[in-house]
Amino acid sequence: MDIVFAQTPDVQFVLAGGHRDCTASQMESWLLPANLYAHRSQIHFTGWLTPEQMTKRYRAADVVVVPSWYEPFGMVVLEGMIHGLAVAASAIGGPAEILKDGETGLLFLPCNAAALADAILRLVNDRDLRVRIAAAGSEEVRKTWLWSRIAEKMRCGHLEQ
After folding, report:
1. 77, 56: one domain
2. Which residues pair with 67 in a beta bridge?
3. 114 and 131 housed in the same domain
4. Contact 110/131 with Cβ under 8 angstroms?
5. Residues 86, 129: one domain?
6. What pTM, to 2 d.p., does this model score?
7. Is residue 63 helix, strand or coil?
């Protein structure tokens, strides 16, 4: 985040969610490193959210970032896409299978802060890229990843994309 703040000092981060009944202050105390205390006003933790609260967060966002080091499926990626957001995610597991890098999302190397920052900065600083990726992702999730589409593929005996 230091890299992002250095280049885009007005950016805001919202770290949405947490384990059930976890508060925002608990999440912050566990996850906010000391080197980012100076940016506390720009880093918001929500704690546990209901599905309705999470939907409101998606509607207020410009970008969804999924910096997982392990991600077997990638439901947050699909949720971001269905809400019409540009998605940047680690090139691992589900996100690497769901997203087409540079088309329906941006993929970056997992556990690589510079690659993560670069993906965020590309989406923050390039509105046209953000809008194009969001639109392509929204179309792709509706075409390929809705349960009705998956069920139809299974019924027809082919799951290749």
Report:
1. no
2. none
3. yes
4. no
5. yes
6. 0.90
7. strand
Q: Each residue of 60-88: pLDDT tens digit?
A: 999 999 999 999 999 999 999 999 999 99
Question: Is residue 101 within 8 Å of residue 77, measured between CB atoms?
Answer: no
Res 14: pLDDT: 97
Helix (H) or strand (E) holding 86: strand 86-90
The model's pLDDT over 8-47, given as tens digits with 9 standing for 90+, comes to: 999 999 999 988 999 999 999 999 999 999 999 999 999 9
Helix, strand or coil, per DSSP, at residue 35: helix
- Joined together, the tokens standing for residue 157 give 């005996």
- State the Cα torsion 11-129-110-93 to the nearest 10°: 130
- CATH code of the domain in which 146 resides: 3.40.50.2000
My answer on whether 3 and 53 are in the same domain is: yes
Q: What local confidence, expressed as pLDDT, does residue 160 receive?
A: 57
Q: State whether 54 and 75 are in the same domain.
A: no
Question: Are residues 123 and 98 in contact, defined by beta-carbon separation less than 8 angstroms?
Answer: no
**Measured between alpha carbons, how far is 7 from 21 in angstroms, rounded to an integer?**
35
Query: Does an H or E element contain 96, and which?
Result: helix 93-98
The answer for residues whose C-beta is within 8 angstroms of residue 47's C-beta and 6 or more apart is 17, 18, 22, 23, 24, 25, 26, 27
